[in-house]
Fold this protein.
Amino acid sequence: MAFVDLHAHSTASDGSDTPGALMQRAASAGLEAIALTDHDTVAGVAEARPAADDAGVELVPGIEISARMPGWGDPGELHILGLLIDETSPSLLRMNDLLLDARARRNEVLLARLAELHMPVSRDELEAISDGVISRAHIAERMVANGYVATTRQAFDRHIGPGGDAWFDKARLTPSQAFETIHQAGGLAILAHPVHNATEPIQQLETLIGRLADVGLDGLEAFHPDQDPAWVRRVQQWAGRFGLCITGGSDFHGPQRMGRPLNSQRVDAVFLDELKQRLAQRRSLNASSQVC
Ligand SMILES: [Zn+2]
Ligand SMILES: [Zn+2]
């Protein structure tokens, strides 16, 4: 059986492997294809492309966009994967710039608040551990290194996560804006790890997914390290109900960061084939219905 991994991060965001090293690692892990899905940026895709060719693994160009939907209850932040995108799409690159600006402003406020709380983290120390986007994971790592907290989890819970004393939210896209940009870039929009948006009762999340499907969502990530077999079944049922594709991946962040090893989810290559079929049908003018 052939396997793929459709969710992984590199140093272009908060992973610890460079895009090139990630392609090598994917080939060594026996994967047929690997999606590079860095937070808010496609900056790593250009480097990953030749490295994937050299390593003999198929690169699925991607991105992971944080979105928020005001007025639709509060499922928290939605992570939208864009898969099989054209990373040179002008609208995608425009969105990239907007997201990176919003992130930079958020980081500025967050670091100022931490300094006021006598937990200074300097821009220099963050730049030393990041090649690209500076995320809260980097800030948490420095907070541990500087002895302010015992673990990165503690950094998020007490200080830099929602409700923490240094928390500051960044401006975000709505899901529809994310879907539109992903579609303009020729890709498919997938809701990553729905378990992170679990509502009480769970039917609220189901309703939300139905609405997202109405406005352009193409698929759901069923296989993810945070989703147990009961969640996998639940997500598969929703996908069937709303005509959505299924994806999966390890959400790998490199050996030095949180997450599971590449290929730990054993995602059958057939799921990638189905994504490609859905795209082909979208492109075909005669398509009357979509797969998945
Ligand atoms: Zn995510
Ligand atoms: Zn991720």
